[in-house]
Design a protein that fits this description.
It comes from Kwoniella dendrophila CBS 6074. With about 325 residues, this protein is of the alpha/beta class. It contains 12 helices and 12 strands. Helices cover about 35% and strands about 10% of the residues. The chain has an 8-stranded parallel β-sheet.
Length: about 325
Amino acid sequence: MTQTHFTLNNGKKIPSIGLGTWQSAPGEVAKAVESALKSGYRHLDCAWAYGNEAEVGQGIKASGVPREEIFVTSKLFELHHHPEHVPLAIKDTLKNLGLDYLDLYLLHWNINFEVDAPEGVLPQFEHRIKGESGKYKLDVALTEDVSPTWKEMEKLVDQGLVKSIGVSNFNINRVKKLLKTARIKPVADQVELSIQCPQPELVSWLKKNDILPQAYSPLGGTGKTNLRDNEVVKKIADVHGVQTANILLSWLVARGANPVPKSVTPERIANNLKLVDLSKEQFEELEKLSQSHPPNRVCDQSDSFEPTYDIYQENDPEFSDKAQFAKEQ
């Protein structure tokens, strides 16, 4: 039987499929959210940085679905990781969404900007500080140790503003560092997961440590790295009488991951909610396909800042996920 929910490590349940809202054009998000909720979705994934939280809130209101039936995630952007900005950020996000609380609040990235904003003002994009290279400067100390930010997020749980907290774009090494000081364990790590970027070591480690792997860009990218039209995927889709997207999302759920596919097209939104039961043989075929090519990411910001910061540490002999995972075997 297809899995409709995952249970988080704090006992709360999250629907297996969510609607992602990243890279949706202005004016489209409210209608997409309304359409999704009317189609049966009960899980919405958004973020302050997407610039469309207000539209998400409009879509929730227009749907008529009661708030308590919807699992809403948003994210603390890297502009707002300084401890004094966390209370301002959650206040702004809740105001934008028109909600009293979030079901899940994630650290959006494991990097932190240096900002120059007046005291008591929530930093905006124009408050980022540029370095000599013209790239925006990282606060390296806070990037290396996010525990001060996490302590403020824990307070949001205590205050009832957030039901659960988690991270995003954290590898094994960085989750381990956070766990050493965390009072509240992260319930999830939202990372790029797809058949073109399967991250098997990270998924396995997160599951072993009772942290839900969430999958953004779950259908992969475009062009040469797009595996949706692969013959293996097509063949399995034909057996089940569904589209290839349904197979790839079902595979992720079967791996124990929580995909949040993005769409603004009502037909695709409704279709993406359909999961199928993959046979053991079909699941193993997809696993083999996912590891038959070099992994390819849609999103890597490592070279976007000053100094350059190796976000994923994929080639680090000690801190890569492969190295960290091997240590525990």
